[in-house]
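One-letter codes give the sequence; backbone shape is given numerically. An example follows:

. . .
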Amino acid sequence: MATALNFKEQGNKEFQAGNFEQAEALYSRAIQKDPTNPAFFTNRAFARIKLESWEPCLEDCLKAIELQPRIMKGFYYLAEAQLQMKHPNEAVNSAVTAYEICVETGNSSTANAVQLVLRAKKAKWEAKERQRLRQRSEMLRELEDSLRQACARDLEVATDCEDKDEIKASTKRKIDELYSIFAITDPANMERREVPDYMIDSITFQFMHDPVMTKSGQSYERSTIEAHLKMSPTDPLTREPLHRQELRPNLALKQACTDFLVDHGWAVDW
């Protein structure tokens, strides 16, 4: 008789072959055999991400976290699902937790977790920006709502995954173009605001004011990297040994951040 681990291993093979529905089914059978193993739930959550089955993925992640409160993959996949479900505030919290677990455990996925946090923070910021701009123009609100309603109608009748992806991508392009047009007509109030990634600290994910560079070329806010080094003398991303005296001021980046704030004072709240 096949064991839970047998089903999991078969699921892994199907997943690697790109057969995500079969993988999901096999992970489900593993869970039926042993509902106490959090890895089975994160494996199925990953398969459900591939299937764009967001609500079931979220449920799997929450169950994995219930079984193992500091499971990195549970929080990582949870953030992915929350992003897709348009819950950026919750996604930021989940992604930051995944990042913190990576740092605590020396997980090799630290760099990926950093990018996930940045994606979540961008989504959160863009949601705030969209609301700010929508409040500026009743016409913009009506046009965007019309595009989103048309997208929802098209998705209801589409059956092919590629068709659905194209519908979503097309709608996003149209909405982005709509905002660009309104920005041209009223640049002082309608311009979309965004902070370049290279100005964001990879530990706190806040705008940098006094960036310093490590020997690997990665820049961090001075206060946050120094606080990190007191707890762990390693580069948070590369995990290579790193000491305070090896940090060097990144004067070019500091000047760029200073210049950016002159015209974009709102960046301090990013």
About this structure: The longest strand covers residues 211-213.
